[in-house]
């Protein structure tokens, strides 16, 4: 069973009590769905787990696990990620919705058909999904918003997406004066020193004007 055909849906995060109950964190869109898939496996697929939910914590569930009867056995599972087969996931209701696992690994090209890179990860920092792409030309990781404007075409079956990189994506961010001051030699360092030297003079002038007033 290949890892690429399976999806991580949860993870053991600790033990609860002395009778072998485990704490498990769900990664599914509907957290309780974690318990609806039947047996889950570890990343290698070699070990299967049958979970029964017994309660809830602040950001996790409490569960009983067949074959685990004490705290030591439960603690030994901490950090183990839980997987299901990709084909166990229900179809999405919207043609513009995609499972993250289906997007990772897709090849990104521009509208002109030029290679852009490969999708490596998807993040949501609160403002919507962002695609992390390994840029083909530079080898650097870049992020673009997963919106129709920035990603107008998604063809999962063909394994490609079309991207319209936002303007200024590759523009260098101008260093702050403090960052410039830390650089050794070169025009940038000279500019930083000049700015720092100008600051006291400006303060003295302002002080004189204030006194005269």
TrEMBL record:
Compositionally biased region (Acidic residues): 193-213
Molecular function (Gene Ontology), one example: ribosome binding
Residue ranges constituting the RimM N-terminal domain according to the UniProt record: 8-88
Family: Belongs to the RimM family.
Xref: InterPro entries: PRC_barrel-like_sf, PRC_RimM, RimM, RimM_N, RimM_N_sf, Transl_B-barrel_sf
Name of the protein in its database record: Ribosome maturation factor RimM
Quaternary structure and partners: Binds ribosomal protein uS19.
Biological role stated in the UniProt entry: An accessory protein needed during the final step in the assembly of 30S ribosomal subunit, possibly for assembly of the head region. Essential for efficient processing of 16S rRNA. May be needed both before and after RbfA during the maturation of 16S rRNA. It has affinity for free ribosomal 30S subunits but not for 70S ribosomes.
PANTHER family: RIBOSOME MATURATION FACTOR RIMM
The record's note on its domains: The PRC barrel domain binds ribosomal protein uS19.
Region (Disordered): 175-213
Subcellular localization: Cytoplasm
One Gene Ontology term from the biological process aspect of the record: ribosomal small subunit biogenesis
Superkingdom per UniProt: Bacteria
Pfam families attached to this UniProt entry: PRC_RimM, RimM
Domain Ribosome maturation factor RimM PRC barrel: 101-169
Primary location class: cytoplasm
């Amino acid at each position: 069973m290949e890892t690429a055909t399976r999806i991580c849906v949860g993870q053991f995060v600790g033990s609860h009590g002395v009778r072998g109950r485990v704490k498990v964190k769900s990664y599914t869109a509907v957290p309780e769905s974690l318990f609806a898939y039947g047996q889950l496996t570890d990343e290698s697929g070699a070990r299967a787990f049958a979970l029964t939910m017994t309660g809830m914590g602040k950001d996790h569930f409490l569960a009983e696990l067949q074959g685990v009867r004490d705290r030591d056995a439960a603690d030994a599972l901490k950090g183990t990620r839980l997987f299901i087969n990709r084909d166990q996931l229900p179809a999405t209701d919207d043609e513009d919705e995609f499972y993250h696992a289906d997007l990772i690994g897709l090849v990104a090209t521009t509208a002109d058909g030029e290679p852009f890179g490969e999708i490596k990860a998807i993040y949501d920092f609160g403002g919507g999904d962002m695609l992390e792409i390994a840029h083909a030309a530079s080898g650097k990781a870049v992020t673009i918003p997963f919106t129709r404007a920035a990603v107008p075409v998604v063809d999962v079956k063909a394994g490609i997406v079309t991207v319209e990189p936002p303007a200024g994506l590759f523009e260098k961010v101008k260093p702050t004066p403090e960052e410039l001051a830390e650089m050794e030699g070169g025009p940038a360092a000279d500019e930083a020193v000049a700015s720092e030297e100008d600051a006291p003079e400006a303060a003295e002038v302002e002080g004189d004007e204030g006194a005269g007033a």
